Amino acid sequence: MLKNIIIPAFLVALTVVSTAQAQKSNSYELASPGGINKIKFNLDKSAPKYEVSHGKIQVITPSDMGFMLKNNEDFSSNFEITNVKKSTFDETWEQVWGEKKNIRNHYNQLVVQLQQKDKNKRKLEIQFRAYDDGIAFRYVYPKQETKDSIFIMDEKTTFNLKEDGKAWWIPANRENRDEYLFKDAPVSTLDTVLTPLTIESKSGLALSFHEANLKDFASMTLVNNIGTQLKSDLVPWADGVKVRVKDTFTSSWRTLQIGEKPADLITSYLILNLNDPNKLGNVNYFKPYKYFGIWWGMHIGKYTFWESDKQGATTKRAEEYMDFTAKEGFHHLLIEGWNKGWTPAWYENKMHMFSFTKSADNFDLEKVVEYGNKKGVALIGYHETGSNLINYLKEVDDAFALYKKLGMHSVKIGHVGSKLNMKENHFGQFGVNYFRYILEKAAQYDLAVLYHESIKDTGERRTFPNMISREAARGQEYNAWSEGNPPNHLTIIPFTRLLSGPMDFTPGIFDVEVKQGFPSKRVHGTTAQQLALYLTIYAPIQMMADLPENYEGKPALQFLKDVPTDWEDTKVLEGKIGEYITTARKDRNSADWYLGTITNEKARDVNVSLSFLDPKVTYEAQIYADAEGTDETHNPSAVAISKKTVKASDVLKLHLGGAGGTAIRFKKI
Fold first, then answer.
1. Same structural domain for residues 467 and 482?
2. Are 157 and 254 part of one and the same domain?
3. DSSP designation for 502
């Protein structure tokens, strides 16, 4: 049930007073509802500036705003204020699915309307919102007196950090998009980086810069030019133009989440709150789930994506996987490589020509779907575009129509390649519009979308709850065919990449030494850690990525059968970026809680207070831990399973081996 709490008389009074003040002042202040965060706006020598403070700590000192347009037209100065409006908003809304069921959206807003004093008299509106967990602002270019084509060549927004801090970053505009390992460095040493950008400030605050509700605009990256100043650097079109618009534009929200500690950033829902409410209504064709896949075998080299004597996607193998899926009580299976167009060079930068309606040799799509229906196993569709969108857009309606005809309701869409159509950046305005177009198109065919090699998440799942997950980072696959992900990667991404939204990391590898795969390739962690990832990494769909034979007869598979993917509430109990994290989540459909805790390469003892549990309830803690003596290099697949009766007043003492973890189900007795 949607609950809106708005006080119209108060809003009107604020608007009238503020509008009158606009004629007297060039400076305004906006505080969050609890007075925790404050934004100061100032028109300084006709140029808009803003600053941000958290309590008594100044976070952002006066910083620039505005744009540079084509022909060197400055759209960042020579302004006068024409109107100022203040308002407040408070609602509690319910996620269709998510890491928290009910989310409060409570903010105070300041809208400043500006007009340039030159002959063009261009208007610009800047909207500020102050939340207790951060601040946000965006630009609105309203319809002007005359029709206009706008070419934004640069955004002049800066974030002048009061002090330096440790930034956790990955580079922007590189060959592998956002699939890089996070590094840490002082803000003052950064080059151009992707968001979310997480910073541990010298003042002790945890900060995260990102953006929300990105549509028909370019993605924002951040560049450090001088000192501790970060500047917006929009991802360009191939010809260098940053944003092309006709008549009007609305930028994404520039966001700054602020926490007393890094864990606070994870349970901030500011990004979601800045997106439009659900436009799709009841998306009854999608319910959160776990799935198997003919996938890992291809990555470790056991099978091929293409037609060969080791072809992964065959009708026979699909039926065997469906048998296993049904036997173990699951209901979804992903099959990659099912269609025509796959070659040994499929991942190279070329305009690959895939078919999205024709089955590969030895694979019968209709027959496989029919077999799955008998077994109660739904097939997840797969489209690898190879970033050849010219080809994909010609076929997408037929491809989606085929899935709808067959009763399929999920599709994974890949975009392998350094550029879309070998020309445009994934993160530029072209890519932003393409990914939104496909998402809306999928909704017309009752399809939920899982994106790989896509733009970053900016919270659009609130508006389009068929946007269920995406990759947008280095996932499990890198453990199959590269040097792999170091253990600290998993203790960094919850505080960085995952702040933007769900991730299809593809956890659940039991054979972490990958005995059947490429020589010397492996998962750099323990099997118990893989179980814990279902709690520390959020997604409404979670893959059980290993081969069926590696699950067969393993007692630890029970945890994967039990753990949900849809939650009533989420609590991050403790964590330090790059070292460890402990996350607890409550099942949306039962009284049970689940907990996952993981560490980097260092063994660790953690004391977990169970105060998050219902104090009136007794629970059975079903514990899946690293066996004694287990770590990344010593018997890493060994999982010790035990049970213990616990209450909310208890403290659990857990030992995590190096690169290890523990997963727990708290079942109400």
1. no
2. yes
3. -
